[in-house]
């Protein structure tokens, strides 16, 4: 009951000094809102980046083959480039490899009705579509069976560019790639771009990988993407694939990318960023806490006579301390609650303008509110202690 009376009296005191209370409350509110908005915004940004990888799958493993600048790596007894069958045979190099899809990138001029299009050419197989989840809105995908046929599938941006040139449906229309005419047999759906695959399907023209060698004599298998088992041993896969490729060709420098490792690195960077943003926001909350302490110190000085009377009629020092500490905590509770709400709203606005998916992660609001209450207790303790240590006689003599 005693603490209930302290709460009621604290509310009355805060009400009678409204302006002072609002100023103290604003400091906590702004500080809490800063912490919640920054940390929650960082979590949303990380979630959006990770979503791009998860849309493809966390079990992907990619290899880039580049010509080595070291002549010592060149073996005259071996071929310089992988064949299509050899790239498929890499599945046999490790038990954790489920699928293997080679592809090649070619930068060649692409025209539709003599109008140049902003597109790159990808030489692929039907396995490529399975691994990177390419869905079609029209037609079919190119396959190994097409071999040297001049068929192609266009990405969504290429489709839109063609529709801007002509009202005709692009399916079945012809594209000029270099000196060759390709017939469009499929249209890919919008594809989420990500940094794992060194290509954007939306801006690509996909042709049979064997036909790509007709477009350009420099077209070779320079990338391979694989799907692994969920619990694959990445290090062992790298070693086995390296040994397999080196036994087939020479003069190649291999670069590996694992979706699992990239996601782990991104999460680690995200944790560091979250802590950093939280510390920046905490500076505002620290300033708000100092504001609460200043307001409470002023309140103690103004209420010295009241404190003296309370002590003179038998009030215990811990009751005086509790009275002022409860006032500081109430300021922090209200400021923290409003700050959490405003911080969530700010994070939602950020997500809306950046077109991110908004997810209310529980940690930022809980952490922001908890820290605001802790700040209230910490910075309210000294004024409360000071009030409880006043000499009743000196307090009663004050004006």
Task: Give a structural overview.
The protein has helices at residues 2-16, 18-56, 84-89, 126-132, 156-165, 209-215, 234-248, 259-302, 304-312, 317-354, 363-388, 392-397; strands at residues 60-67, 97-106, 110-112, 115-117, 120-124, 136-139, 151-154, 174-177, 180-188, 204-208, 223-228, 252-258. The protein is an alpha+beta fold. It folds into 2 domains: 2-54 and 265-397, no CATH class; 75-250, no CATH class. Strands 1, 2, 3, 4, 5, 6, 7, 8, 9, 10, 11 and 12 form a 12-stranded mixed beta sheet that branches. A hairpin with a 2-residue loop joins strand 3 (110-112) and strand 4 (115-117). Helix 2 packs antiparallel against helix 8 (259-302). The longest helix is centred in the last third of the chain and has 44 residues, at 259-302. The chain starts with a helix and ends with a helix. 38% of the residues are buried. The mean pLDDT is 85.
Shape, principal axes of CA atoms:
elongated
The SSE string, one letter per element, is HHEHEEEEHEEHEEEHEHEHHHHH
Total domain count: 2
Distance between the termini: 32 Å
Please state the structural category. Answer: alpha+beta
Mean pLDDT: 85
Stretches with pLDDT under 50, minimum 5 residues: none
How many DSSP H or I helices? 12
The count of DSSP E runs of length 2 or more, i.e. the number of strands, is 12
What structural keywords apply?
399 residues; alpha+beta; 2 domains; twelve-stranded mixed beta sheet; 12 helices; elongated
